[in-house]
Design goal:
The structure holds two protein chains of two kinds. Chain A is built from eleven helices and no strands. By secondary structure, chain A is mainly α. Chain A has a single domain, classed as MetI-like fold. In chain A, helix 1 crosses helix 11 (about 245-280), helix 3 (about 65-95) crosses helix 10 (about 230-240) and helix 6 (about 135-160) packs across helix 8 (about 175-205). By secondary structure, chain B is of the alpha/beta class. Chain B has a domain at about 50-65 and about 100-270: P-loop containing nucleotide triphosphate hydrolases (Rossmann fold). In chain B, strands 6-7-8-3-9-10 form a six-stranded mixed sheet, sandwiched between helices. The relative contact order of chain B is 0.17. Classes of the chains: A mainly alpha, B alpha/beta.
């Protein structure tokens, strides 16, 4: 075998290995999706989206309480977490040399690595234990705490990709510093920031542990953030571990809805990034 | 034109002539020095930049040309550890005076960079954003101002039908002319150009040079360039810098035909640099 054929062989072998790695990476997701569709799709009827659960052991019923609950809890978490995370991310990116930035970054990295159940325990100690009752708001606070460091870091990374020449162009035109940051630098990274935000929302939508001892879960449709509230991940957890077959069906269907929500958010995030990239020419 | 009587008195303080009223220099540099931390980049530079003319700053890499240019609008403030000494006066006002409004200074001193850096906005917004922000003209006059700037930058005919397209979609040469139009939007007194043609092809460079010659009727231009022919073609005055110090300054024609300094001759004839 001469040198050239050997090189080609090596190249092909490496490409082959990479293809195997890609397939192995994607396969679990495909299996999960297929399993969920097979076992869960059959239960997705109108009642599933419009009714609260039937009494234990009975047929039918739905999880509208959990769908509404997830929307409220995740929505409140996003309202708290996104402004703080994005704002802090902008600060860290625009003032990279400051001491506050160094501390913020360090804390964010620690928080990012903190297991979500630990954050749930803190939310319990700070909010639930002091208020002496479980509440959807406590759940949102826990989710927001998970969200902030993620959004902070992605925002910071995105802004740091902006070439310095753009910043200089704006400053040299007589833009004040804050206008340069917000009007030019942040504006040009908006698609990236939106993507990071959507991915963070998708990530917290599926969190179960921090909700276990904060929002607690509920069998009833509730929109009061000061009361315990159901959420899709909690429903999956409760029903999947319950003793009834009907519950298992609902758990499969809930899991399918949850993963579809996450999928839609992720695809939306990619689209936002692509559309943004388009206007950059 | 009548000659103004020359005031010889040094005891009375007369107000400085209004910009454009006389041939007073546009930029006066006195014993200017600049250092990044401990590294001295410019040492005691004295230079007088004449109004409504093109002054080329030439010199080998690392001679402090760009640093000097970026000191005039104090863009070097961004550099950590930047230290100024001496003084630079633009139209009689020191740029280092305490309480200098950097926003106002940079409005009066436009800058064009080495690489075209249009904002990721529409062609129109690239030009309109500065004047709109600084409230230089009433909002309803903005379209007219944008057209005037784009015409002055000889870009109007190429972009008039697609003003709402992103400025980043233009060719490199067009982008650089857009950046010039953007700088003109602020109606600056002084235009700084930091090797504006170094990223451009020969045809775009030629257009840019014609534009510079055109612009000097209304503006004072300081251009840093590595290209000797370019300096000879576009500039009226040339300053040769080496290792952060001024070697020679004078009318371009003289510098290029009868340089007074051996180093200048060596540099412009390409023996080093």
């Amino acid at each position: 075998m001469n040198r050239r054929t050997f090189r080609r062989f090596k190249s092909n072998a490496m490409v082959g290995l990479m293809i195997v790695a890609v397939v192995l990476a994607v396969l679990p997701l495909l299996f999960i999706l297929a399993d969920l569709v097979i076992k869960g799709a059959g239960n997705l009827d109108l009642a599933f989206f419009t009714e609260t659960p039937a009494p234990a052991g009975d047929e039918g019923g739905g999880v509208v309480h959990a769908i509404v609950g997830t929307l409220i809890i995740v929505g409140m978490a996003a309202l708290i977490g996104l402004p703080i995370g994005i704002g802090a991310g902008i600060y860290c990116a625009e003032y990279p040399g400051s001491r506050i930035t160094w501390i913020t970054r360090f804390v964010a990295d620690v928080l990012n690595g903190t297991p979500s159940i630990v954050i749930g325990v803190f939310a319990w100690a700070w909010i639930v234990a002091t208020q002496k009752h479980f509440s959807a708001f406590a759940g949102s606070a826990a989710l927001a705490m998970i969200m902030i460091p993620m959004v902070l870091r992605t925002t910071e990374e995105m802004i740091r990709l902006v070439p310095n020449s753009l910043r200089e162009a704006a400053l040299a035109l007589g833009y004040p510093r804050w206008r340069t940051s917000l009007g030019i630098v942040v504006r040009s990274t908006l698609p990236g920031i939106i993507t990071g935000s959507l991915l963070a929302v998708a990530r917290i939508a599926g969190e179960t542990a921090p909700l276990l001892f904060t929002a607690l879960g509920s069998q009833y449709l509730s929109t009061n953030p000061n009361q315990p509230m159901a959420a899709l991940p909690l429903t999956v957890f409760t029903y999947a571990t319950g003793p009834y077959d009907e519950w298992h069906q609902l758990a499969w269907a809930s899991a399918l809805v949850l993963i579809l929500v996450v999928l839609v958010l992720s695809v939306g995030a990619r689209l936002a990034l692509r559309r943004g990239a388009g206007t950059h020419g | 034109m009548t000659d103004a009587p020359i005031a010889v008195s040094t005891t009375t303080l007369t107000p400085r002539p209004a910009p454009g009223a006389s041939r007073a220099p546009a930029v006066e540099v006195q014993a200017f020095g600049f250092a990044y931390g401990a590294r001295e980049v410019i040492r005691s530079l004295d230079l007088t930049i004449p109004r409504q003319a093109v002054t080329a700053i030439i010199g080998p890499s690392g001679s402090g040309k760009s640093t000097f240019l970026r000191s005039i609008n104090r863009l070097n403030d961004l550099v950590p550890g930047a230290k100024y000494s001496g003084d630079i006066q633009v139209e009689g006002q020191s740029v280092f005076a305490p309480g200098t409004d950097l926003v106002a200074l940079r409005q009066r001193v436009g800058m064009v960079f080495q690489r075209p850096n249009p904002f990721p906005k529409s062609i129109y917004d690239n030009v309109a954003y500065g004047p709109a922000l600084n409230a230089l003209v009433p909002r309803r006059d903005l379209p007219e101002l944008v057209e005037r700037c784009l015409r002055a930058a000889v870009l109007w005919d190429e972009v008039k039908d697609r003003l709402d397209e992103p400025g980043t979609g233009l060719s490199g040469g067009q982008q650089q002319r857009l950046c010039i139009a953007r700088a003109l939007g602020n109606r600056p007194e002084l235009l700084l150009m930091d090797e504006p043609a170094s990223a451009l092809d020969p045809i775009s460079t030629q257009k840019l040079e014609e534009l510079i010659v055109e612009l000097k009727r209304d503006y004072t231009i300081v251009i840093v360039t590595h290209n000797m022919q370019q300096a000879a073609r576009v500039s009226d005055f040339t300053a040769f810098l080496e290792e952060g110090a001024l070697v020679e300054f004078g009318p371009t024609q003289r510098i290029f035909t009868r340089p007074a300094h051996e180093r200048t001759e060596a540099y412009i004839t390409g023996r080093f640099g």
